[in-house]
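Lecture 7 notes: from sequence to structure.

We start with a single chain of 289 residues. Read the sequence below before looking at the structure.
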Amino acid sequence: MKGIFSALLTPFDEEGKVKEQGLRQFVRQNIEDQQVDGLYVNGSSGENFMLSLEQKKFIFKTVKEEAKSDIPLIAQVGSINLDEAIELGQYATALGYDSLSAVTPFYYPFSFDEIKDYYQSIIAATGNQMIIYAIPALTGVKISVKQFDQLLQNDNIIGIKYTDNDFFMLERLRKRYPDKLIYSGFDEMLIHGVISGVDGAIGSTFNINGKRARQIVDLCHQEKVAEAYQIQHTTNDLIEKVLDLGIYQTLKEILKLKGFDAGTTKKPMQSFDEKQIDKVVQLIEEYKL
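Now the structure, written as tokens:
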């Protein structure tokens, strides 16, 4: 369960329906072209929080059918509807997903006891492993080290998807829990996570830039940090340009130009501005995507 995991994109048609052929292509190109170690399914990059329950199940099923047992699969099942999270967790577990993950419940000001009960309820109902998805910038939920102490006492909670720029907390968690998995969640800060001792990374840009992510990890492990920084600089130049154009729209447009049935984003997200297509072509050429 260590290594580079793509936060899998989801292709949609103009009516917001999942494009099955494109989804299967995304799975294959991540495995065969980007050579990632695993897939993180139905996370933010998959536009999960705009999907119906049936769409989420369809994605879990299709990805498992296509990936088979080639690589580990993590199912993100988090929802502020606990019943839905449990149903999705049971469904993904029955399909054979290697672990569940769940974003912290958001929007309402849940107490820590409510958050802890949320995770314990999903685990108890599924019997599967759990990776906490901590992304305070989007959820508004900041879990302290002492609160992580309580959560990580549960043996079924095997790790954290750590999407935060608090590297002091990351260092504290790494030192405190050497046997738990910690994944870096910010692609643009991957080198800092690796230096801090993460076990892997989960990122959206790995769908098109996974090879560079692996180079950063490998070079850091070889103590060639200066070389790793050069790859991170290149990666961040690419990320800045992708963000300027719209991250999910642009990642799909890159894949579309490479011959994949990449579709579009799901409303209310806007579709890609076709007037910017020349900039995407330039990205592909400049960064050899």
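Residues 188 and 236 are 6 Å apart (CA to CA). Keep this in mind for problem set 3.
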